Amino acid sequence: MGLNHPNLSPQEELTEDLISIIHLFSCRLSGLRKYKKKIEDDPSLK
C-alpha cells in the first residue's frame, strides 16, 4: 500500500490496496478470537 507501481493501472493498484486492507482486518479479527476467552475473563476490561 502506498507505493506507486508504474506497471499497474489505477484499478489494479486500488484492488491490491483493498485486498491488503481486508487481509489486515481478517488477521486482526482472528487474533482477537484467539484471546476472546482471556478478554471475557479479565475483570479490568469490563
Helix content: 55-70%
What is the molecular shape?
A: rod-shaped
Mean pLDDT: 84
As residue ranges, the low-confidence spans are none
Order of helices and strands: HH
Count of distinct strands: 0
Which percent range describes the beta-strand content?
under 5%
Give the class from helix and strand content and strand pairing.
Answer: mainly alpha
**What is the number of helices?**
2
Radius of gyration: 17 Å
Distance between the termini: 36 Å
Largest sheet: none
Short description:
The protein has helices at residues 10-34, 36-41.
Characterization of this structure:
With 46 residues, this protein is an all-alpha fold. The chain has helices at 10-34, 36-41. The protein is rod-shaped and about 50 Å long. The termini are far apart.
Q: Which keywords apply here?
A:
mainly alpha; rod-shaped; 46 residues; 67% helix
What topology emerges from the helices and strands here?
Blueprint: H1 10-34, H2 36-41
